[in-house]
Write a structure and sequence with these properties.
This protein is α/β, with parallel strands linked by helices. Helices cover 36% and strands 11% of the residues. A seven-stranded mixed β-sheet has the order 3-4-2-5-1-6-7, sandwiched between helices. Bound molecules: adenosine-5'-triphosphate and magnesium ion (MG).
Length: 332
């Protein structure tokens, strides 16, 4: 990774365009949308909109973010379901990408929601994170360019991943399969500044693999009743991984999601989270917004779906905060 290659418009894009075996017709560069068929994924297909600008083009006036001194690998984890892990992964990734950084999303959830939101094919049989964990393929064989941005790739998850948790149990170095696939050499060659890993809502082997592969944990917390319930279990697991498998791991970022400023509850949860996590809780909070929840239905992030919306702005702000904080790491 050379700092020179961060200059706007330098050939990094050209170099990266060949990454991955799968490209969508038209790709991100000409505004064409993903040509997804009804057989896509687990019976789901995004609505195709024609003639839309790419997310990069929609945010072409966005200020560029600094590249990190060294690549940041961030695992987005919370074993609680529906707290905004996937939404935060894909929107932060898109926000980093439209602000000039090269980003890889690794979808580590058999639900494949991150792949859907990024408009990346993930029907059974598509080369995916499953084959990556088995060690049969490399990142460049499975990373697909997202239709959202020229600087955003995604290793999709297919339903095949559902069996992986069981299959991994008998494998050598079962907790480190993802780390072995995401070697610095491979990621240097592909020139990613950020790698964001979207975890399933469990603390099983897939999440452990994500924690072992990462430098940082990002914990999304929904501003709701019982927001902090179960968090102790996540923190224990992070500590276990730190002490046995990955001493470099730290909780760097806590992101409050689905914030509704009209409620006292949101305020209370925010105060509690800030009290516990201090500076690690981002100043930016993500508002509850229907637009944010609608975007994946169009195979888009909120940045592409409604670029000027509060949701879009909040993810741009959160990404900026993360990038500007640099690689400062604290332990759990
Ligand atoms: P899972 O544990 O199933 O993987 P998750 O933690 O990844 O879930 P998401 O899928 O990101 O959570 O979000 C859960 C639901 O909440 C989704 O329907 C999503 O569209 C919606 N959602 C997420 N963030 C927001 C928001 N800021 N405003 C409104 N709806 C949101
Ligand atoms: Mg999810």
């Amino acid at each position: 990774m050379t700092p020179e290659s961060n200059q706007p418009g330098v050939s990094r894009e050209t170099q990266r365009r060949s990454v991955g075996g799968m490209r969508f017709p038209g790709g991100a560069s000409d505004g064409a949308q993903t040509e997804t068929t009804a057989s896509e994924g687990i019976g789901w297909s995004p609505v195709v909109q024609e003639g839309r600008k790419t997310t990069d083009a929609l945010h072409s006036d966005a200020a560029q973010l600094p590249r990190p001194d060294r690549r940041r690998i961030m695992t987005v984890a919370n074993q609680k379901g529906g707290v905004g892990k996937t939404t935060s992964t894909v929107n932060l990734a898109a926000a980093l990408a439209v602000q000039g950084l090269n980003v890889l999303v690794v979808d580590l959830d058999p639900q494949g929601n991150a792949s859907t939101a990024l408009g990346v094919e993930h029907q059974s049989g598509v080369p995916s994170v499953y084959e990556l964990l088995l060690g049969n393929v490399g990142v460049s064989d499975v990373a697909a360019r997202s239709a959202q941005s020229e600087r955003l790739d995604c290793v999709p998850a297919t339903i095949d991943l559902a069996g992986a948790e069981v299959e991994l149990v008998t494998m050598v170095a079962r907790e480190a399969r993802l780390r072995e696939a995401l070697t610095p050499e491979v990621l240097d060659e592909l020139d990613y500044d950020y790698v964001l890993i979207d975890c399933p809502p469990s603390l099983g082997l897939l999440t452990v693999n994500a924690l072992v592969a990462a430098h940082e944990v990002v914990i999304p917390i929904q501003c709701e009743y019982y927001a902090l319930e179960g968090l102790g279990q996540l923190l224990n697991n992070i500590e276990l991984v730190q002490s046995h498998l990955n001493p470099n791991l730290g909780i760097s970022t806590v992101l409050l999601t689905m914030y509704d400023g009209r409620t006292k509850l949101a305020e209370q949860v925010t105060a509690e989270v800030r009290g516990y996590f201090g500076e690690r809780a981002l100043r930016t909070v993500i508002p509850r917004s229907v637009k944010i929840s609608e975007a994946p239905g169009y195979g888009q992030t909120i940045l592409g779906y409604d670029p000027g919306s509060r949701g879009s702005m909040s993810y741009l702000d959160a990404a900026r905060e993360i990038a500007e904080r640099g690689t400062e790491r604290e332990t759990a």
